[in-house]
Amino acid sequence: MNSKMFLRSVSRLCCVAVFGGAYALAEPPVASFGSGFHKEEKTGEAVFRWARQEATFSVVVPSSGRYALEIGLCSAFRKQPVRVDLAQKGSPVITFLVTATEPNHLQVCRTVLDLTGGPNELVLRSDAPEIRFSAVDQRDVSIGVGTTFNLVPEPTSPATR
Questions:
Q1: Which residue, among 64, 70, 158, 79, has the nearest Cα to 109 in the 3D structure?
Q2: Contact by Cβ (8 Å): 65, 154
Q3: How far is Cα 138 from Cα 133, in angstroms, rounded to an integer?
Q4: FRET pair for 73, CA 20 to 30 Å: which of 17, 43, 54, 86?
Q5: Which residues are CB-neighbours of 94 under 8 A, at least 6 positions away?
């Protein structure tokens, strides 16, 4: 059985299990955007949120295990890359070098996380200072974050089953 979880809207994560070509919806985990995120926007086909230097989101998964996370990121600075740390339980997990500079061309960043069944808080921290795009747009932003996250359970090796 293959299963794939993905965030498709502002705060809903669902799991699709594949059984020999047939699809079934499994108990849906939940995801939410917390502090540091601005409202959802759309440009072309891309749906994203601007975020401050530090932004928190959480995922609730049905069971403990290792999950591969894919998240789309871009820099609010149009000409320079930024470093974005992903932290879990207060500790850095990985640093992404984000070179994408437009939300309609998000850079897909990947890592594997050990998540517990239930809520898991994750934090994105950018090394880029916050900017404002104009005098009219008073939001402080550092990075763009796609609102579609892929979250896939990692297969367990035979030795650990």
A1: 70
A2: yes
A3: 8
A4: 17
A5: 85, 86, 111
The C-alpha atoms of residue 124 and residue 141 are separated, in whole angstroms, by 13
CA neighbor of 6 nearest in space, from 110, 119, 150 = 150
Q: What is the pTM of this model?
A: 0.79
- Name which of 127, 104, 123 is nearest 59 in CA terms: 123
Question: Cα–Cα distance between 10 and 18 in angstroms, integer?
Answer: 24
- pLDDT by residue for the chain (161 residues), tens digit each? 444 444 444 444 444 444 344 444 445 556 789 999 999 999 888 899 999 999 999 988 888 999 999 999 999 876 788 999 999 999 999 999 999 998 888 999 999 999 999 899 999 999 998 999 888 988 999 999 998 888 888 886 555 44
